[in-house]
Please model this.
Amino acid sequence: MGNHFAIWFVSFLFCFSCPAFLFCEDDWWWEGNTSLILPNDEPERLVSMTGELFLRVLDQDSESPELGTYECWIIKMNPESFEIACSTPVHGAFHSPESIRECLGCQELELTGGFDKNWLRKHLGQTVTLSGYLWHAHTAHHHTPVMMDTDPWFK
Amino acid sequence: MTIRGGGSRAWRCNNPGNLRSSKYSTSAQRRSIEVAGDGKDEYAVYPDYETGHEALVVMLKGGIYSPLTLREAMKRYDSTNPKYIDTIVEKTGFDPERKVKSLNDKEFEKFWWAIEDTEKWKVGREDFIEKWYITCVHRKRGVIYEYCVRQNGKDVWLSKQEATSLAQEWRLHAILVHSSNGNLYLRPEYHGKPFRDMVC
Model:
């Protein structure tokens, strides 16, 4: 009798704790395609992206132009790189392949982090290939659905 | 219906963290009600400040941001402004090399407050626009050609075109439907009384 109770109790605890484990994952709020979520135990993928490099000068804060401007370096991705952007799982996934493709100007890739500004300036308007780690736009300060940084999300 | 103008984007969208429209910010769990923007830059709209605030807090507490230091977190939150972390440090007094997950409840509250304050919550102008109900329809050979609308306690008959124009301005409790042949017509709102039961 005691053994039966112990087995039942352990099974009960196991069943009860499973959803809790699931909810520890950060993808619990995702609906639909989760293919761009990189599991926490997997390393971030260094990718090479090719396209035309251009510069857009934007207000630092679009609602407060008096704060000055900001140089936004962007690669207009070629079709192969765009496919990489739509299929590479990342930490900090805020998009699905479909939601990237739905964005206006989805072929644009904002460069963030420590890319050498002098090098970028020299290659303005040219087709370039740059390597980095992809991440997804999620605040008003991000200008393209997918961005590329010199550093991985988790160092 | 309320239309918000002026003020800050955070206030207009009830989105104090200025979260862009994403799988996260517009998920069912976050209870956003709309997306605002021009197609390129789009933001989540929440029903009230509390819901928008919750979206920011859940994101910061989640596994994406919480393992980062405050410096790393702010670098990601606003990748355009390297001084963002200085502003947060100035407002909170925290060491920028501390991890987000190391903050206790009181410190975390200070942290999100500093972000919301930096993102700006500026109240603007609110205009209230009355939205009218269709109470009755006139039908000829199965086609509705007039709608009776209750305006300020009075029943007013509108042609189909006038009613459609009002619906386009979101001033009528009805769904505007674009048919495949390009025509516009009205449909009752979800769970609304069918028009066929309103013929008089």
